[in-house]
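Example record for the data management plan.
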Amino acid sequence: MTLSVHKNYLPMEAEPASELPAGPQWHYEPKWDGFRCIAFRDGAKIDLQSKSQKPLTRYFPELVSALAGLKAKTFVLDGEIVIPVNGDLSFDDLLMRIHPAASRIQKLSQATPSVFIVFDLLSDDKGKSLVQLPLQERRKLLESFAKRYFDEKGSVHLSPATNDLAMARKWFHMGVGLDGIVAKRKDLPYQSGKRSGMQKIKKQRTADCVVGGFRYLEKKPLVGSLLLGLYNEQGLLDHVGYTSSIQADDRAALTKKLEKIIKPPGFTGKAPGGLSRWSTKHSMEWQPLQNKLVAEVQFDHFTGGRFRHGTKFLRWRPDKTPGDCTMKQVHRESRSALGLL
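Corresponding structural encoding:
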């Protein structure tokens, strides 16, 4: 195996689930609140690749240096980039790394250095591909790799894992920095780009949505609400709800950003509804957007093809592609995230 073979690898992904699966075939890991990343090293060359195969290398120079400092000269690691701040993990600080000037990135890399939490080994220190091995074998090899090459005081760490369901439940309720639990089948090989053999159980009911349009405030030329979309089984973008929880201080800048990408149709499937006896013409007017922006929102219920009540805007997700925003995220969200308890 050479590095170039793996450079086109999409990461193995997890399907959303409403409860932790039980049984001896399952292995559990924390779900970290960061950017998914595959790290490639071939001698002096190091590349960081996002979940959507976009380059992350320039945004995390301190992580590149940390990986270059490992004695292993060849490897492919799958993991999560996080930024610890005051004992917690800061997703906002991760977002600040995307798109600024090189000088700004350098300053941020020193002020809020990132950490790489590794949970899979796709190619070892001899350049041998491990993706066809079952997870339980890859995990043993990863633990051995980490013992030889990772420094406890460094910024590359091995993610904990357990086969104990009770321990996984404790992790789920453990607070800081965890977004939930990922359950993986121990007997399966690494399945690049597939959502098979892995399940994610999140603490919050959240969904990544395409922003297909927006409405202005009733009496001001500022964005009032974002119109959310998810792709249906036919590949069409359906309008599924809205979020209006936008900070007042952010409205002006966000309005300018949105107005630059106004372009019909916005939604290719079900579109926002028309007038009703409770609405005015102005309140129902909306602006269609190019399908470029992905927003993560929190919600209570999803029934009848839409979010019931408004959703809470959590954050922008520049690391996600619009195509990832499908109805599958909400198909099993009618029950508690941990129905087993």
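Summary line stored alongside the record: The radius of gyration is 21 Å.
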